[in-house]
Amino acid sequence: MEDRSHKVLLALVMLFLFAVIVLQYVCPGTECQLLRLRALSPAAAADPYRAEDETPARFVPRFNFSADDLLRRGGFNIKGGDLIVFLPIQKTGGTTFGRHLVRNIQLEQPCECRAGQKKCTCHRPGKRETWLFSRFSTGWSCGLHADWTELTNCVPSVVDSKKEVRLRPSR
Fold it and tell me: Whole-angstrom Cα distance, residue 152 to residue 135?
């Protein structure tokens, strides 16, 4: 009988540990919204910046963009002189997004990526000039981790060096 009670106790302890592990997987943060009953109320969901003790929020969201700015669509003319310059911010998924730009984007003429090569050719339709300036299309033309200042000085010179003087667009 005592052996059976040990097995039941062991099973309950194992079940408890399994539940704790699952809970940590589902709710990894210190405040699990699934366990809080107030999270289900509409008042708590209305303002994410409201403190639990109803004190004024220390963070007041300010958006510098109008709704029109956020919904604006940018036009990109792949046949014209438009150029996309990809400036990745370190440790924010820039490598993955840069690879997506050259491999998965749906354009009239997408980039050509050959197996085993890190660089892809991103030419305009019917021309031998690139429409994308990134490490996956032009390599490290402006340095390893070029920032905004380096790119604004470097990109025009790199792009214009590949064109004849009469074909260079005014910038």
Answer: 15
Query: What average pLDDT does the segment 15-41 reach?
Result: 69
Q: How far apart are the first and last CA of the chain?
A: 88
Every domain of the chain and the residues it spans: 85-165
Inter-CA distances, 166 with 12, 57, 73, Å: 81, 59, 32
> Which segments within the chain are labelled E, that is strand?
84-85, 132-133
List, by residue number, the catalytic residues: 145
115 vs 16, 102, 119, CA distance in Å?
A: 50, 13, 10
Q: What is the pLDDT of residues 80-104, one digit of tens each?
A: 888 888 888 888 998 888 888 888 8
Answer whether 85's CB lies under 8 Å from 133's CB: yes
- Compute the distance between CA of residue 42 and CA of residue 5 in angstroms, rounded to an integer: 46
